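Lecture 7 notes: from sequence to structure.

We start with a single chain of 308 residues. Read the sequence below before looking at the structure.
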Amino acid sequence: MSETATMGGKQQKEEEGNNDNDSSSNIRFTNNIIEKEKNVLDNCIKLKEEGNLYFKEKQYEKAIHVYTTTISKILAELKHSESSSQSSSFSAENINKTQEEKEEINKEIHEEEIPNNDTINNNNEIIEEEEQCTLMKEEEEDISLLFKEIITNENLKELIITLYSNLSLCYFQLSAFQKSLDYCNFILKDLNQMKHLKSYFKRSQCHENLNQFQLAFEDIKKCIELIKEEEKENKQLLNLSFIKKLNEDYKRLEKLAEEEKKKQMNEMLGQVKDLGNQFLGLFGLSLDNFKVNQNSESGGFNISMNNK
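Now the structure, written as tokens:
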């Protein structure tokens, strides 16, 4: 046997050995992720239940604190697990900002919001709130990426959805309707849960309390549409009291949405009329000098000069 053939055989065996090692490494990594997700789920379910107790006692601020802490714990645990891996398609660059980057962000916020030392005390609360909003936004982006690309445990995904849904409920009870609505949007859009019935229903209630009746009506219509789909798939009737509530809301919001639409139309026509009068005023005229008649045959409109 030639030396070349011998070397070729050795190289092939080495490559096969490397492939086996890579496969074993990937299996171990996958198993570690599955085990990690299970541990995170077990620990965080207990925290969520603690938040639920506060909610039942109407201690909504404490419930919010527990729910947000639980979300942060899930994120921290999974990010740590992910950053310790060398074979992840989901790089730390996408999900985890370095401490230097965060310090630079905070520095920019401070420099922008504090023009001089005399205003430091007056602006401290504003700066802290903005920094908190920035951190929350980063956390939501990270959770969204983890949810879509990393987490494989469906129960853990369901827990994350429930935590954000519970946050929406808490803020709604505190009459923070826009904040509650934002969490509904996060579930529907950022977590891509476009069939999450509770979020549509709660978002409808938020829109109504914000006097956005057409949007509220659209969400109620979506709720009814989803229920019909679910009944068709499962071939069983859902909660009758909830369906009754939806039908009542549908009738009430349909009327309010129509009234809002007419009001907006009148306001728009009023603005158009004011603009028209401003233009015609240059010629000593106004819209009152004209009248509009509908042609009964064609259905079109004719504009004529009012001689009165």
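Residues 1 and 7 are 11 Å apart (CA to CA). Keep this in mind for problem set 3.
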